[in-house]
């Protein structure tokens, strides 16, 4: 055997999952059939808010209004208590029919570890005036501490140094 990079085929599946909301799962088509699962905590929170009848408004990947912030905060604390291994094992069985055989041969199934994680630090203001009072300081902080690439990424754009691309 020779170690070198080779092309590989992955299969991707998108789900509107009952617990996690919109998500996708990706499996490599060769042994050891590695699986990557992509979930979004805000999707999970929105599913919980829906089930509790708590109103909210979304914009892109953000929640911009919640009718009952106190209850929403209590609900979101439950995310760390989700039994991810159980949920991910079920997804693995859906996309990989040989999971039982793998368990039989190796005496265990998949071992789930996070490849990447992010913790959202959203800030909500009770009213517009509260934001306006500190807005100048926020803008100054952004101008001093962030570069153009940070700002463009925040705005959902790709940064390029080519001037005609910025028009």
TrEMBL record:
Source organism superkingdom: Bacteria
Protein name: Uncharacterized protein
Organism: Candidatus Brocadia carolinensis
